[in-house]
Design a protein that fits this description.
By secondary structure, this protein is mostly helical. The chain is built from three helices and no strands. Helix content is about 60%, strand content about 0%.
Length: about 60
Amino acid sequence: MLHREEETIKKIGRKILRKLEVSSMKAAIGLYEKVAHSCTPTFSFFNDGTAQERMRFS
């Protein structure tokens, strides 16, 4: 669908795992679940701080 070689997709996957400092996709998913369940997003996240801080998220 994206017209990418299989080796390119594998290389991207390896880079993602390396950046996450995990050795497998299963470990990456476990890390995601741990982070996703430990954070509670709030509406005020983007409304707090200075104008310069808010600019980073625009």
